[in-house]
Structure formats: C-alpha cells, structure tokens
Amino acid sequence: MPISETKKAYKSEISEIKSKEIKEIPSDVLEFIGSKVADHLNNITEPALAKYIESVGPEYKNKKIAKKEKEREVYKAKDEARQRANTRKEELNSKYSPKKSGNHIW
C-alpha cells in the first residue's frame, strides 16, 4: 500500500524535529539551572512552603527510611521474644498439665 504525500511530509517533519532534539544537556547549562533553582529555594520566606520542600528532600526521606528500618528491627526482636515465651509456656503446660482420661484426672 503506497504512502500518501501528506504522510511522507509528516514523517519527514517528525524526523527533522527528532534530529534537532538535544540529547545531552551541557554541564555549564546544568550548573546555571542548578544555581538558579538553589537561589530560588534559599530565598523562600513562607514557613509552610519551606517545611514542605524540606519534607520532599532526600535527607528527610533517608531519615524516614532509617526510622522505619529501626522500627522493623525492634518489632522483629519483640516478635521473636514472644515466640520464645509462647514455646516455653506450651512446654510447661504440656509437662505439668493434668492428664485426663475419660472422667478421671490422673
């Protein structure tokens, strides 16, 4: 099936646009953008916005992850202690519980 002239023109236009796209941003441009963003973030005076920006930052997330890991370790230790206590309780109950046979306790 032949391709129409409009489709050919569209495809050539798209390929030209893709060839003109910037593949990698130069380091000086990245540095300039980073400095502008840093200046803007450092000049924020509204406390609610500053608190939000801090909560989105990587340091806050790392602290949050570390806190969750600690909580997980504590919970795991408590769970192991509970399991040991339950095992010991079952052992003692089976050892010292009265044995029943019909209506008699032996």
From TrEMBL:
Top-rank lineage group of the source organism: Eukaryota
Basic and acidic residues bias locations: 71-93
Compositional bias (Basic residues): 97-106
Disordered, as annotated region: 71-106
Name of the protein: Unnamed protein product
Originating species: Candida boidinii (Yeast)
Phylogenetic placement of the source organism: Eukaryota, Fungi, Dikarya, Ascomycota, Saccharomycotina
